[in-house]
């Protein structure tokens, strides 16, 4: 399974987030697979890092692995890598998708009513041939069934 994808040279996708040591696309291509990603590494960051409001730069992630990064990191990364959007998952978001860093990053979560504990929607992102992005939002429909043992 790939660590990331680059759509049309402008939309960068991964499970987790960015890495403070990622400076060019070749660094991702050079990751040997299969791998049990060491910490720290680009691979572990692509899987585990998270955006966080209210911080500047990088800080240790509260998950105990990888980093959390601020909106400034997203803006600088998009500029340096000449991309328009970062698409990632890895965190439950209430409406299925949630923007960050002036809409330069979006978190997509595709499991509605996650683990039966959250009242979140799910979202699917579609990117068309012109790189126009659209969302389909899905909500869980829970039906309670009463069973009588008469």
Automatic annotation (TrEMBL):
InterPro entries: Calcineurin-like_PHP, Metallo-depent_PP-like, PP1_catalytic_subunit, Ser/Thr-sp_prot-phosphatase. The keyword RNA-binding does not apply. Keywords: Hydrolase, Manganese, Metal-binding, Protein phosphatase. One of its GO terms (molecular function) is metal ion binding. One of its GO terms (cellular component) is nucleus. PANTHER family: SERINE/THREONINE PROTEIN PHOSPHATASE (PTHR11668), SERINE_THREONINE-PROTEIN PHOSPHATASE (PTHR11668:SF300). This is protein-serine/threonine phosphatase. The keyword Metal-binding applies. Coiled coil: none annotated. It catalyses: O-phospho-L-threonyl-[protein] + H2O = L-threonyl-[protein] + phosphate; O-phospho-L-seryl-[protein] + H2O = L-seryl-[protein] + phosphate. Its EC number is 3.1.3.16. SMART domains: PP2Ac. It comes from the Eukaryota. Residues 1-142 form the Serine/threonine specific protein phosphatases domain. Its cofactor is Mn(2+).
